[in-house]
Amino acid sequence: MAADPLQILVLYGSVRTQRRGIGLARLLVRAIEARGHGARLADAAEIPLPLLDRMYKEYAPGEAPEPMERLAGMIRSADAVVVVSGEYNHGIPPALKNMLDHYLEEWFFKPAGIACYSAGRYGGVRAAMQLRMTLAELGMPTISTLLPVPQVQDAVTPEGEDRTPFLAKAMDKFLADLAFWAEAARARKSEAGTPY
């Protein structure tokens, strides 16, 4: 265990009854913790944000709804973010976009990794490409390594059990890449702050 472990937020934005990516999110939380980092899961089904009307910053201090305040605290305390996204009609899930769009400055300068999935063979990569643009606009640089999981219904159980011969190795590379950039960003912020 590192003396000052990274704090990594796993953001999962599907609220469908039969959602399958929750298993991937849970598996990632355990893999992050196994590397000696802290991990928290922000699950859209457990953090019921309203559809975006007012951003978090548009509320007076202490007046934002409790779920919005709770997620803001989780974001602020994170050194990095893993965004777990399914692919809905070649795009990202609406609940995930809603979670992202409620905040702005809270996301700034936090490296992000994208773990994507689909029921088909492409593993959600079309959604991941759209997500890279959104995260960049929110001030979150994304790592180059992508974690696509095809046929997620067979690859991971809802409880987060890996059923594949490839996912553990892919996750190791993905999380090593994220940790490298998160540690670099944290060191730079500690030395010189952020540009704005």
From TrEMBL:
Q: Which domain of life is it from?
A: Bacteria
- Its GO CC terms? cytosol
Which Gene Ontology molecular-function terms are recorded? FMN binding; oxidoreductase activity
Residue ranges annotated for the NADPH-dependent FMN reductase-like domain, each copy included: 7-150
From which residue to which does the signal peptide run? none
Query: Cross-referenced Pfam families, in alphabetical order?
Result: FMN_red
PANTHER family under this entry? CHROMATE REDUCTASE (PTHR30543), NAD(P)H-DEPENDENT FMN REDUCTASE LOT6 (PTHR30543:SF21)
Query: This chain belongs to which protein, by name?
Result: FMN reductase
- Organism this protein belongs to: Salinarimonas ramus
